[in-house]
Design a protein that fits this description.
Blueprint: H1 7-22, E1 55-61, H2 64-72, E2 77-85, H3 94-97, E3 105-112, H4 119-130, E4 138-139, E5 142-143, E6 149-153, H5 156-172, E7 182-185, E8 189-191, H6 199-202, H7 207-223
Parallel strand pairs: 6-7
Antiparallel strand pairs: 1-3, 1-6, 2-3, 2-8, 4-5
Helix pairs in contact: 1-7, 2-4, 2-7
Amino acid sequence: MKKTPTRISRLALRLTTLALAAAGSYALLAHAGESAVVVPAPTTDLTPAPAATLQTAVFAGGCFWGVQGVFEHVAGVKVAVSGYAGGNADTATYEQVGSGRTGHAESVRVTYDPKAISYGRLLQIYFSVAHDPTELNRQGPDSGTQYRSTIFAADAEQARVARSYIDQINRAHVFGKPLATTVESLKGFYPAEAYHQDFLVLNPRYPYIVYNDLPKIDNLKRLFPAVYQSTPVLVGSAKQ
């Protein structure tokens, strides 16, 4: 199954997803609540500068609604923006990215305070509850390279820490199979259309959100209580 580029078709797919779940067809779809695994904390992390300012991290792991929703509930995160990374600026639209031919992945740019939470801790949450990092070019009902598991590194240090952590998780056999997560250099991040921002928070009863993404928030609260914040930080300044 593949997410189609129109909002109407997207709704139809989401309703189909919920109907399948209600009918007991769980084997056809990956349920976010079943894939949550607490991975060990990274042995290597970024060292914040003495006068550390806000930093950013960009993660891709399936539909950006759920990934954004997770990080909006993480203490130390100042804002999480849904968008596109991996391709060119002129193809960074939902309709084009949905074709799977732009090189983009649906991604989330996380702006965080390194004095409150580290890059490594964000990676731990990303691997544990934000998505299933063993899936290649798919998450749940969504398939295609635009749903790949990728860490877009802003610099060499982020890339080093991310690759080291992937090796650490693979050596520990946490998931029973190798991670599909790749590390790519961040060439640009392009915010998604306004209707995608804060989608999980603003649409908690949307069928796709109920089935695929709300379990991620529950898992964050259950598995990472020390960093879970019940009031999310939202993109719109008027909503914060």
